[in-house]
Specification:
alpha/beta
């Protein structure tokens, strides 16, 4: 009997304007809760030059560290994702 194939991870892209808080927080939560079942990414339509320090602090308080990397531009192909979630204020 052969080993079952591992389940494919669902690719999710969270998009916000600046990629400085909302999209980063959403991707971090999905990664924390969903573990290996999801590949959560984040990007912005008009990225900020840096991560919002309040977002980093809030997530740190619940035990989730946000990556220090600079916000990313939405230069990704939508068809590379199973689900794209747009976050608006």
């Amino acid at each position: 009997m052969s080993e079952p194939e591992p389940a494919r991870r669902v690719r999710v892209l969270f998009v916000s304007k600046a990629d400085a808080a909302r999209s980063r927080i959403a991707a971090a939560w999905l990664h924390s809760i969903g573990g290996d079942r999801f590949d959560a990414q984040n990007a912005g339509t008009d990225p900020s030059s840096e991560l919002d320090p309040d977002a980093r602090q809030v997530m740190h308080e619940v035990g989730i560290d946000l990556p220090v990397e600079a916000p990313r531009s939405l230069r990704l192909r939508a068809q590379d994702y199973d689900l794209m979630i747009v976050l608006r204020p």
